[in-house]
Structure formats: structure tokens, C-alpha cells
Write a structure and sequence with these properties.
about 475 residues; alpha/beta; Aldehyde Dehydrogenase, Chain A, domain 1; Aldehyde Dehydrogenase, Chain A, domain 2; 2 domains; six-stranded mixed sheet; 15 helices; 22 strands
């Protein structure tokens, strides 16, 4: 592992202009594994100027034939597959997630490059004849210089789901990865360079939101910002972006309902509901942390969730036996523990698992899986996004009641419905105010399917064809034939 990471700006690996650096920590042990540039306004200006110059020249990337843009992304997919295990081990070390989960993430990253590489040649406009003497055309053109500010829960995957469609559309791109987990994101420039991406198209700079992210958002030379992260930071980005009226897409938090009806398959519903909270240490924006269970199943469901939580193996992500790793940082660990303390006063603490016994992991940022029963829908732990392995189990007695409780929240990212009644499933899905609804499943997010939320869970959609469209402008061209 490289000890001293660097930014990648205009085809070169460089330190921050002022030479300042910050530590990158292994969350399983608390040990420093690398240092990264603490980028600031001068570094941002260099990256933005290079991206702007490359885009405005028009011959380097926007003028590159769509077939060639697609081929570059397809080659990137092949390189990611070749480097699959190395990237997965790096992701595991940096984020703390179990190695099996990291391998699945990297495999999806390869497919994202492949999928959006295919879209490069399928961007088309429209033609309409208004009369014998007039017609118009709608051209789709790249938006310009795009910025991606990405989160630490899926570092490489979240970066790629912004980067790949932006490149397919013909944008130049600047990535500000999360300061907690920059390692795999800093592998992307070498991957894309080997794939044939021209110099100046893609830039990566590390740093903190206040000193690196903020000037990126504020820059009048940036045309588009794509952000995934907290609702609070999303509001700041939206306000700052308004000064230059730049395009903004936001994928923010969630407090997703997971509804288990009495006629659901118990084994599948209970296991899927638990996975929907405990996967990825609960560090999932769409985690189904509000688990609504219909009365007749309630006690059995709580017992099943307690059993599952007690069986989950906590440990270092690189251990093949580990099912749940540490949270990403000390700050996040303390945040989740505060919510557990609040929840203990609001509801019944049904179970809380144990930390790893290994003394080497004593300083790791572990929070065991936790289940609260008898939770009211107005409780703090049922309303606030915790972003950790904390489940709130809430009883309900009718479809109308559970839909009302599910929608009674400021978020609207995702929801899950478990039932063997297809009509009930579809009617419930239609009534839920959420951007994604799973029926008899929890958390699949295929690259082909649009992703994004209602209400305060965000603006715009990523993935699928929407992922490309959000990096395109429409130009209407009127032609007088008379």
C-alpha cells in the first residue's frame, strides 16, 4: 500500500500545493495506513482549469466519437476485472467492509463501466417536421465540466456510478472522494489512462468538504455537481450551486420502511429484513431500519431478528469469516452509539451483539448489530438516519396504517414490502412515497435501474439511462425550409 498518496490533475500525480496531508486510517484497528493530500482552493482551481480547458477545446473529449468513448469504458471494465482482487482487498482495508462484500462491489464497478460504455453510442435526439416549410431537431450535448463528490460507504462504486455516465456523455470530470476512504478512487486514473482516456479529461483530488468540496461547488467554471451524502451537506451544496445556477443532482439520506405483512413467507421476510439493516454495517442510505411487522408475526419477527443479530460475526474485513466489519470512523462510531443510548430510553433494547474478542481490534470502530422492539414511529431512532446496524421494529395492524406510518417521514429514498399477495404488494408500492420499492427483497440496486429518492432524499436519478441523461443538455435547433 502506498504510504503517500497524490492527487491526479491534468494527467500528473501531484501533492497539494501547500504540501499539507491528512491520515487515512484502517477502521478495524485505528492504525494509519496512508496519507493523502489536503487539497484546498489552489488545487481545486488547477483541476477545474484543466477540465474546463479540455472540454472547451472540444477536440479531446467532447469531439471524440461516441464509439471511441464507449470502447475506452469497455476497456476500463476489463482492467477492473483483471485487478478485481487487488481492488477488493484495498476497499476492504480502507472502508472496513467484509471482503466478500468488497468483491461484489468491485464486480459491479466493472459492469458499470461496461454498461455505460454501451450507452455512449445510444445517446440520440429527436426530429420533428412542423410543416412543409419548417422542422426542428433536438440535439443531446454533454453538460460540460462535471464534479462528483462521493461517500465512504461504497467508495469505488459510488464514484464509478457518477464517473462512467459522465464520460459516456462526453463531460470532463473531477472527483472529490471521501477523505475517510480515498484509496480505491485514486486507482481510477491509472485504470482509465491504460484504457485510453485522454489527458485532462479526468481528475481526482483528495481533501475535506469545507476546503476542497466547497470551492469545487462554488466554481463558476463547473457546470454540474453530483453529490451523494448527508442531507445537511446536500442543502449546503444546493445553496452554493444556486449562486451560479449550476446543475445539481443529490442522492441523500433515508429512513426506509421495511413492511412485513402477515401473509409473507416468514423465513425469507425475516432474513431479508435483517440483511436490509445489517449489510455493510448498516452504512447504507437505503437501509430498511424501520421494520414494520403486522401484529400476528410481531413476536416471531423480533425473536428472529435477535437470533440473527446474535449470530453475526464481527471482525476485520479481510477475514473471510467476517460478516460485519467496523464503521468507517471514530466519529461515525460515536454517532451511532449516541443513537443507541437514546433508543434505550425510548424503546426496548431487544439485543446488542458483542464486539470482536481479538485484542488487535480493540481500537477498531465496531458497533455490534442492535435491535430495538416496541418502537413508536415518532421515536428519535425511528425518525433520524443513524447510518449504522440499528433496527427499530414497529408493530402495525392494517395496510392503511402502515402506509401512513411509512410515509410519515421527511425522507423518501427506498422501501421494502414482503407479502405473497401480489395485489397488496402493488397497491402498497404505489402508495409509498419512495423512489425505490422492493417487493419480497431488500437492497438490490442493479446498474440498469434508476436510483434516487422522493422528498428530502434527493434530487434527480442516477444509474440506468437516467444516469447518462443527467449529464446531458438538450439543444433545440429550428430550421426554416421556406
Amino acid at each position: 500500500m502506498a504510504d503517500a498518496l497524490q492527487n491526479h490533475i491534468d494527467g500528473a500525480w501531484v501533492d497539494a500545493r501547500d504540501g499539507e496531508r491528512f491520515d487515512v486510517v484502517d477502521p478495524a484497528t485505528g492504525e494509519v495506513i496512508a496519507t493523502a493530500p489536503d487539497s484546498k482552493a489552489a488545487d481545486v482551481e488547477a483541476a477545474v482549469d484543466a477540465a474546463r480547458r479540455t472540454f472547451d477545446d472540444g477536440t479531446w473529449w467532447p469531439g471524440t466519437p461516441a464509439r471511441e468513448r464507449g470502447r475506452i469504458l469497455l476497456r476500463a471494465a476489463d482492467i477492473v476485472r483483471r485487478e478485481h482482487e487487488r481492488l477488493a482487498q484495498m476497499e476492504c482495508l480502507d472502508s472496513g467492509k467484509p471482503i466478500g462484500d468488497a468483491r461484489e462491489d468491485v464486480a459491479e464497478v466493472a459492469f458499470m463501466f461496461e454498461y455505460f460504455g454501451g450507452w455512449a453510442t445510444k445517446i440520440d435526439g429527436d426530429v420533428q417536421h412542423l410543416s412543409p416549410d419548417a422542422m426542428f431537431m433536438v440535439w443531446k450535448e454533454p453538460m460540460g465540466v462535471a464534479v462528483g463528490i462521493t461517500p465512504w460507504n461504497y467508495p469505488l462504486m459510488m464514484a464509478t456510478q457518477k464517473l462512467a455516465p459522465a464520460l459516456a456523455a462526453g463531460c470532463t470530470f473531477i472527483l472529490k472522494p471521501p477523505e475517510q476512504t480515498p484509496l480505491t478512487c485514486l486507482q481510477l486514473p491509472a485504470i482509465l489512462e491504460e484504457a485510453g482516456l485522454p489527458r485532462g479529461v479526468f481528475h481526482v483530488l483528495t481533501g475535506f468538504g469545507e476546503t476542497a468540496g466547497a470551492p469545487l461547488v462554488a466554481s463558476p467554471k463547473v457546470d454540474k455537481v453530483a453529490f451523494t451524502g448527508s442531507r445537511e451537506v446536500g442543502r449546503i451544496i444546493m445553496r452554493s450551486g444556486a449562486d451560479t445556477l449550476k446543475r445539481v443532482t443529490l442522492e441523500l439520506g433515508g429512513k426506509s420502511p421495511n413492511i412485513v405483512f402477515g401473509d409473507a413467507d416468514r423465513t425469507t421476510a425475516f432474513e431479508g429484513s435483517a440483511n436490509g439493516v445489517f449489510w455493510n454495517q448498516g452504512e447504507i442510505c437505503s437501509a430498511g431500519t424501520r421494520v414494520f411487522v403486522e401484529g400476528p408475526l410481531y413476536d416471531d419477527a423480533v425473536n428472529a431478528f435477535v437470533d440473527r443479530a446474535s449470530q453475526i460475526v464481527l471482525g476485520e474485513g479481510s477475514d473471510e469469516k467476517t460478516e460485519m466489519g467496523p464503521l468507517v470512523s471514530k466519529e461515525q462510531q460515536e454517532r451511532v452509539e449516541r443513537f443507541i443510548e437514546i433508543g434505550s430510553k425510548e424503546a426496548t433494547l431487544a439485543t446488542q451483539g458483542a464486539r470482536p474478542a481479538d485484542e488487535r481490534l480493540a481500537n477498531g470502530y465496531f458497533v455490534p448489530p442492535t435491535v430495538f422492539a416496541d418502537v413508536g414511529n415518532d421515536a428519535t431512532i425511528a425518525r433520524e438516519e443513524i447510518f449504522g446496524p440499528v433496527m427499530s421494529v414497529i408493530p402495525f395492524s392494517s395496510v392503511d396504517e402502515v402506509v401512513a406510518m411509512s410515509n410519515d417521514n421527511e425522507y423518501g429514498l427506498a422501501a421494502a414490502v414482503w407479502t405473497n399477495d401480489v395485489k397488496k404488494a402493488m397497491l402498497t408500492a404505489r402508495a409509498l412515497r419512495a423512489g425505490v420499492v422492493w417487493i419480497n427483497d431488500s437492497q438490490p440496486a442493479p446498474t440498469e435501474m434508476p436510483w434516487g429518492g422522493y422528498k428530502q432524499s434527493g434530487i434527480g436519478r442516477e444509474l440506468g439511462k437516467h444516469g447518462v441523461e443527467d449529464f446531458l443538455e438538450s439543444k433545440s435547433v429550428y430550421l426554416n425550409l421556406g
